[in-house]
Amino acid sequence: MSKQKQRAFLELFEPIRKDLSRFVMAMANSSFDAKDIINETLLIAYENFGQVKERAAFKSYLFTISSRIYKNGIVRNGRIDYRSELNENSLVVRNIAEVELDVQNLYSALELLPPEQKEAIVLFEISGFKISEIAEMQQCTESAVKSRLKRGREKLSEILIEKKTIPNDNESERVYKLKVSK
Predict the structure, then answer these.
(1) Percent with pLDDT over 70 in the chain
(2) N or C: which end of the chain has fewer CB within 10 A?
(3) pLDDT digits (tens, 9 = 90+) for 112-169
């Protein structure tokens, strides 16, 4: 039975491996924390694999587990700074550096959103889930998800515009000003 369970689990997991990885990286914003969350997710999912009744729900099942692990980590450890540092010794082409900066700014802005809005945006925009699937994962109505997406996008826009309009400010002061303006 163990080999069959393992094969069935891997058969369902393999097609969504990259999706789960992207989702967790967007939420955690650190490869170390993301690996921990993914490992914990897989352990829990495998141990409770018998509870999955519909194979079509497996992706949602994994994303829900990883989301809960992420949220529990924040609650237990306080707000974690997941920003990764750039390697000082690496040679980076200017365009790649600009893209990296944009991505870091986006992740920093995502961190300032309320958890439900952040999760909805990551699930919809990055992971490609449907609104109905997100509503099921977040245990709310579809209109609540739409509202979270709309408000989250608006807040992200405000945050990113605000960051660009504050010249020569250090990062912590910018974040503080943005948090106060909520």
Answers:
(1) 73
(2) N
(3) 899 999 989 988 888 888 899 899 888 999 999 999 999 999 998 888 888 765 444 4
Assigned token pair, 74: 């924040």
Q: How far is CA 79 from CA 14, 56, 111, 126, 131, in A?
A: 32, 33, 9, 22, 27
Q: Which segments of 78-170 does DSSP mark as H helices, in order?
A: 94-111, 115-121, 131-138, 142-165
Do 1-82 and 85-182 show the same overall fold? no
Q: What fold is seen in the domain 85-182?
A: Arc Repressor Mutant, subunit A (1.10.10)
Task: Please report where in the chains the tokens 């010794």 appear, as a residue.
Answer: 89
Q: Where are the domains of the chain?
A: 1-82, 85-182
The predicted pLDDT at position 81 comes to 38
d(CA 38, CA 149): 25
Tokens matching residue 164: 């660009």
Domain 1-82 has CATH 1.10.1740.10: yes
Which 8-state DSSP code applies to residue 123? I
Residue 58: the pLDDT is 86
Angle at Cα 155 formed by Cα 163 and Cα 173, nearest 5°?
35
In this prediction the pTM is 0.51
Give the H or E element holding residue 173: helix 171-180
